Amino acid sequence: MKVLIVPNYTRQDAIEDSSRLQRWLESQGIEARWVSDNRIAQVGELNPEEYGLAISLGGDGTLLRAARTVGYSGVPIVGISYGHLGFLTCAGPENLFDTVANALAGELHVSRRATLDVVGRFERADGSMFEERKMALNDLALSHGSLGGVTAFEVSVSGNHIDQLRGDGFVVSTATGSTGYALAAGGPIVTPEFGGMVCVPVAPHTIMARAFLTAPSDVVEITVDAEQSAEACLFVDGQPLGPGARLVSVSCRRGPGDIILLDYSAQGFYGSVSRVFYGKAAKR
């Protein structure tokens, strides 16, 4: 068996534990490979389908990097929390080896998480158009650029006009991402079993705009008003798309596959909600 190790390279404790974990795995006859940091060139091609497990050592951002690494390969991810929230993670570093051993033995609960298939359309300075496509486990976020100002855009769902908005931006999230940017913008907390999308305007210049949910089969389309809008930027799970080009529009739908997260219980989501947002430990 082969295992991927995805550490947070900015945390020394996560790096040291990754080294300890690699030695322990190899002592069990399991090959381990580290996934490079975003800022470090990956050495050689990585085929996720060759691996049986991905282990994230960091916060939720590190786990999102693990999700981008495995994509739709079906490789399960177990997260060890070294961050501030650790909403998507399974356990803390004090339980590192026990948690990984349970994951390898198939003794953890499997949580299938819906994804987004995001397509951004951009215009270069010379007027030529291009598209970028990305998968998201959490969300896409349209926001104003570094110069500030108001972004004007139209929102449609499956060809049906919803609203013409002016504001700081718009978030479309999965149920998993509902506890991230979408929540901060005023959206609801949604159980991971929900397969649709959560749509939340960010600081809209109207009292009428509200968050809404879509069906799993819907397509959300956002078109930027080039005449009235300030610079608009697009981020997918916190990663920029089309930097340096003008965002024309973005569409997203449910992705063709799920991300598999491992945890200790089907009730792990509600335990995390209680711990992270209400400051209470889950009762057993």
Q: Output the strand order for the largest sheet.
A: 2-1-3-4-18-5
The CATH superfamily of the largest domain is known as Probable inorganic polyphosphate/atp-NAD kinase, domain 2
Please identify the oligomeric state: single chain
- pLDDT averaged over residues: 91
CATH class of the largest domain equals: Mainly Beta
Number of strands: 18
Q: Radius of gyration in whole Å, from Cα?
A: 20 Å
Instruction: State the shape.
Output: globular
Share of residues in helices: 10-25%
Proportion of residues in extended strands: 35-45%
CATH architecture of the largest domain: Sandwich
How many angstroms does the end-to-end distance come to?
34 Å
Question: What kind of sheet is the major sheet?
Answer: 6 strands, mixed
The helix-and-strand class reads: alpha+beta
Q: How many domains would you count in the coordinates?
A: 2
Poorly predicted regions: 39-43
Order of helices and strands: EHEEHEHEEEEEEEHEEEEEEEH
CATH topology of the largest domain: Tumour Suppressor Smad4
- Individual helix count: 5
Question: What is the element layout, followed by pairings?
Answer:
Elements lengths: L1 E6 L4 H16 L3 E4 L18 E6 L1 H11 L6 E5 L14 H9 L4 E5 L2 E8 L5 E8 L2 E6 L6 E7 L2 E8 L1 E5 L7 H4 L13 E5 L9 E2 L5 E6 L7 E5 L2 E3 L4 E9 L4 E5 L4 H10 L7
Key words describing this protein structure:
284 residues; alpha+beta; Rossmann fold; six-stranded antiparallel beta sheet; 5 helices; 18% helix; globular
